[in-house]
Amino acid sequence: MKRIDCVSCGRQDIDKNTIGINKKLLGLEVKNFYCMDCLASYLNTTVEDLNEKIEEFKDEGCKLFE
Q: DSSP readout, 12-59?
């Protein structure tokens, strides 16, 4: 799998769950990804809220998350 970096701050090698939450909230066809900090800022929320959503999606069996 190719390395994906944050489009906003340049943080390198974003993890799979961060890629998953980008796709879940911004659309499956998204081409540019944000790290958790930049995504939270972009969506006017907190990293903690995003992590809670990831856990909810995992519990629901969403295939975008590990």
A: SS--HHHHHHHHHHH-TT--SB--HHHHHHHTTS-HHHHHHHHHHHHH
Domain containing residue 35: 1-66
Whole-structure pTM over 0.85, yes or no?
Answer: yes
Q: Which residue has the tokens 């809670």?
A: 52
Predicted confidence (pLDDT) per residue in 6-45, tens digit:
999 999 999 999 999 999 999 999 999 999 999 999 999 9
How many domains in the chain? 1
- Distance between CA 58 and CA 42 in Å, rounded? 22
Task: Tell me how far apart the alpha carbons of residues 58 and 36 are, in angstroms, rounded to a whole number.
Answer: 17
